[in-house]
Amino acid sequence: MKGRVFKSTGSWYTVKVDGKYIECRLRGKMRLDDEKVTNPVTVGDWVGITMDNEKEGIIYEVLPRENYIIRKSTRKKKHSHRLAANIDQAILIVTLVAPRTSLGFIDRFLVTCESFRIPAILAFNKADLLDEAGLNSYKELKFDYEELGYQTLLISAETNQGIELLKEKLTGKTSLFAGHSGVGKSTLLNLLSPKITQRVSEISESVGKGVHTTTFAEMFEVWNNTYVIDTPGIKELGLWNIGDEELCHYFPEMRKYIGACRFHNCTHIHEPGCAFRDAMEQGKIAPFRYENYLSMLADDDNRR
Ligand SMILES: Nc1nc2c(ncn2[C@@H]2O[C@H](COP(=O)(O)OP(=O)(O)O)[C@@H](O)[C@H]2O)c(=O)[nH]1
Ligand SMILES: [Mg+2]
Ligand SMILES: [Zn+2]
């Protein structure tokens, strides 16, 4: 039988087969397949299963993946973790207040999506909390990111602002919801579908940061043929296996300057005649994007 993995909690996997959810374990041999990845089977995977007894199944194979998204493992050094597989798009839920998502985090996430060729949408949640200055900084970011080809949405799970548009973007697709904890991923999911009851965290007033409530990624059929994967809050996103020369390929605004520097081995950090720096000085590359690029370059440890 073939089915799709909706949830994984370490040793157990919930697989949906013909409309029914079956708890499955992995066939012993499968665990050894790829030593560098901490999870051989991930949410969104299509798998082959056999029944072990009346109730429980065994996953014996993973069908070829259309795509997947990987991050550096937070638990095991030199290992990576597959966040999800077979997704049509990633929705990065960010907030400018309560908590504030850094631009560095946004850009790391976008680079990751680019490297796996997964379209990304930025959804700025908690619009209801933005004052005039907050709204202005949203507008600036919207301008900058849309110029790079990323859609941005301004939404609020509190007032329903922008939710219809978000629903339109989700319909008929499998989407990954990613973002720091406390930005409202679970609240949004509950809002999208009345049958979902994900636990929502209280913002702890003192630090203005959410506490972890979602521990494992889980996929939901929010309505017919429309799937959303809720992920545990991501604190820091370690880029996986992206080389120095490769990094600029994942900045859409930098691609056209590749090869245009005076020195063919330009590192784009300090050399004269660097096309990237020139473009930035001419206002063609946003300074914050170039800075985030440099910081990712410097952060070797985050990429290997
Ligand atoms: N003011 C406001 N609060 C929100 C909004 N969306 C979520 N919250 C609150 O933010 C906190 C964290 O939400 P939660 O869904 O658990 O975040 P998650 O960690 O990303 O899943 C909860 O107290 C929610 O009630 C919003 O649009 N506006
Ligand atoms: Mg949550
Ligand atoms: Zn250069």
TrEMBL record:
Q: Which InterPro entries match?
A: G_CP_dom (IPR030378), NA-bd_OB-fold (IPR012340), P-loop_NTPase (IPR027417), Ribosome_biogen_GTPase_RsgA (IPR004881), RsgA_GTPase_dom (IPR010914), RsgA_N (IPR031944)
Subcellular location as annotated:
Cytoplasm
Among Pfam families, the record links this protein to:
RsgA_GTPase, RsgA_N
Q: Give the EC number(s) under which this enzyme is classified.
A: 3.6.1.-
The free-text note explaining how the cofactor binds reads:
Binds 1 zinc ion per subunit.
Q: Which cofactors?
A: Zn(2+)
Keyword line: Cytoplasm, GTP-binding, Hydrolase, Metal-binding, Nucleotide-binding, Ribosome biogenesis, RNA-binding, rRNA-binding, Zinc
Residue intervals of the EngC GTPase domain: 85-235
Report the enzyme's class at the first EC level: hydrolase
Q: GO CC terms on record?
A: cytoplasm
The annotated subunit structure for this chain is:
Monomer. Associates with 30S ribosomal subunit, binds 16S rRNA.
What protein family is recorded?
Belongs to the TRAFAC class YlqF/YawG GTPase family. RsgA subfamily.
Biological role: One of several proteins that assist in the late maturation steps of the functional core of the 30S ribosomal subunit. Helps release RbfA from mature subunits. May play a role in the assembly of ribosomal proteins into the subunit. Circularly permuted GTPase that catalyzes slow GTP hydrolysis, GTPase activity is stimulated by the 30S ribosomal subunit.
What is the designated name of this protein? Small ribosomal subunit biogenesis GTPase RsgA
Organism per entry:
Marivirga aurantiaca
Q: What is the lineage of its organism?
A: Bacteria, Pseudomonadati, Bacteroidota, Cytophagia, Cytophagales
